[in-house]
Amino acid sequence: MERKQFNLGDVVEMKKPHPCGTNAWKVIRMGMDVRIKCTGCQHSVLIPRMKFEKKMKRVLIPASEQEDTK
Question: Where would I find the beta strands (DSSP E) of 18-55?
């Protein structure tokens, strides 16, 4: 199985939307667990890395592009 590539600060799309209506999340912590923050309501969730990789679809906005727009 190929591991999905994501970095700290990336905005990622998840398979299922959050109850607030958005499915875009920002990666704010990485390790054995991954902490992500909803870009809609700012709720944060800590998920085991393997579960996160299964539920993540793709990277919407890489962290490198976000720094360029500031």
Answer: 24-29, 33-38, 44-48
pLDDT score at 63? 84
Find the angle CA(9)-CA(10)-CA(12) to the nearest 5 degrees. 140
Q: State the DSSP code for 36.
A: E
Phi-psi region of 33 (alpha: psi -120 to 50; beta: other; left: phi over 0): beta
Nearest to 45 by CA among 21, 26, 67, 64: 26
Closest to 46 measured CA to CA, from 63, 66, 29: 29
| Nearest CA-CA partner of 25 in 65, 52, 54 | 52
Domain boundaries, the chain: 11-63
**Phi, psi dihedrals of residue 42, rounded to the nearest 5°:** 70, 15
pTM for this one? 0.83
